[in-house]
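User: Sequence recovery, please. Input:
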């Protein structure tokens, strides 16, 4: 999740939490189930000191197992990989586990337990809020990595960035590379609760081929509804004026394609805010919005699904929303110089 000025970061469901239970290294990267085995190092590369498994190869191995063993085998692969991640981060880090989540961090035991409880509660609340939009059937557990050191964080996430380019700063992101997980850097739980909500929302909609604006709009909306966020830098009136100045029939194509979220200037912040506002406006009729979100496609930024399920022209909707003059405001993939972004920043 990118954060040009954005990240001003500041009761639970019963479950079993094992803090420190997995703090000793597992015997290597070999996972065995019955007569079948896989060594993650045989299907992985190494980047910046971190093991990067080819999760497609892992899935192929999982598919060779009896169906009733596959979920357990996938969990064992996650554990084996996460042990290697925590070893790469040094002796201060531990791998902790609850019924619903893995946590790699250097947190003391009591803070790790609180984080795991927050993860479980947040997952339940997001699923209740999104209803059928949320995927609740995937293998494995939620995975959260909290990096104490910002340099370690960027060393890890650098694998997912192009080699060259200028990018907005990041305080956390959801990485859907086959084994979806989210990563943060920070110290105190209350400071990154909004980031956890945001990234976990991405996790639960990662099965949908939706455009970045819808993906990020739902995540920011969840963040604002489920956490205590700090005061905005700008007033509502200032934001409205900034939106009107920035968005034109030309720049709006960056919003539809998702490129605006990667801008290193105020365009990234405004894209996040406009995505949120679009989701708030379009979701007033919740059943219709759910049908739209389940049908929206990346290649046209959801335009056809909006017509079919919301009876809305996205171009006219955003133009009226921004109070702009008539023009070519609708998604126009022919004008996108690059493939559209899915979000999950």
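Assistant: Recovered sequence (345 residues):
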């Amino acid at each position: 999740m990118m954060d040009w000025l954005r990240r001003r970061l500041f009761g639970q469901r019963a479950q079993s939490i094992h803090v420190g239970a997995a703090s000793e290294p597992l015997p290597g990267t070999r996972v065995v189930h019955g007569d079948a085995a896989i060594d993650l190092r045989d299907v992985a590369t190494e980047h910046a000191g971190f093991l990067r498994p080819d999760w497609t190869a892992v899935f192929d191995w999982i598919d060779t197992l009896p169906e009733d063993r596959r979920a357990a085998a996938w969990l064992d692969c996650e554990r084996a990989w996460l042990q290697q991640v925590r070893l790469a981060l040094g002796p201060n880090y531990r791998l902790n586990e609850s019924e619903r989540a893995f946590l790699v961090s250097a947190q003391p035991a009591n803070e790790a337990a609180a984080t795991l409880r927050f993860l479980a509660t947040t997952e339940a609340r997001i699923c209740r809020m999104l209803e059928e939009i949320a995927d609740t059937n995937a293998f494995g557990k939620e995975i959260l990595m909290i990096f104490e050191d910002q340099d370690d964080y960027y060393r890890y996430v650098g694998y997912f960035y192009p080699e060259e380019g200028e990018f907005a700063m990041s305080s956390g992101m959801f990485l859907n590379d086959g084994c979806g997980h989210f990563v943060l850097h920070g110290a105190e739980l209350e400071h990154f609760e909004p980031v956890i909500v945001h990234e976990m929302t991405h996790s639960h909609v990662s099965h949908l081929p939706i455009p970045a604006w819808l993906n990020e709009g739902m995540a920011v909306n969840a963040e604002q509804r489920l956490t205590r966020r700090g005061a905005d830098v700008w007033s509502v009136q200032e934001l409205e004026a900034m939106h009107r100045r920035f968005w034109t029939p030309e720049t709006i194509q960056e919003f539809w394609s998702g490129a605006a979220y990667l801008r290193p200037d105020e365009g990234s912040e405004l894209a996040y805010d406009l995505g949120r506002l679009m989701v708030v406006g379009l979701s007033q009729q919740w059943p219709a919005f759910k049908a739209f979100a389940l049908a929206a496609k990346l290649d046209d930024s959801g335009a056809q699904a909006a017509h079919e399920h919301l009876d809305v022209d996205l171009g006219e909707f955003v133009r009226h929303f921004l109070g702009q003059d008539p023009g070519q405001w609708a998604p126009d993939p022919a004008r996108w110089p690059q493939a559209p972004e899915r979000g999950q920043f």
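Strands lie at 17-18, 30-33, 36-39, 44-47, 50-53, 94-98, 101-105, 142-147, 172-175, 181-185.
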